[in-house]
Amino acid sequence: MDVTAWTQWSAAGDYDVARFVLQRGVAAIACLAFVSALLQFPALVGERGLLPVPRFLQRPYARTLPVVWRWWRYTDRRLRVLAGGGAVVSLALVLGLPQRGPWWVPTVCFLLLWLAYLSVSDVGQTFWAFGWESLLVEALFTVAFLGADDVAPPIVVLVALRWLVFRLEFGAGMIKMRGDRSWRDLTALYYHHETQPMPNPLSRTAHLLPRPVHRFETLGSHFVQLVVPFFLFAPQPVASVAAALVLLTQLWLVVSGNFAWLNWITLVLAFAAVDDRSVAVVLPGLEPLLSQGPSATPVSFVAVTVVVGALLAWLSWPAARNLVSRRQLMNASFNRWHLANAYGAFGSVTQQRDEVVVEGTLAAVPAEDDWVAYEFRGKPGDPYRRPRQFAPYHLRLDWLMWFLALGADDGWFRVFVVRLLEADRPTLRLLRRDPFDGQPPRWVRARVYRYRFATRAERRATGLYWVRQERFTLVPPTGLGEGRSRSRP
Question: Whole-model pTM?
Answer without folding.
Answer: 0.93
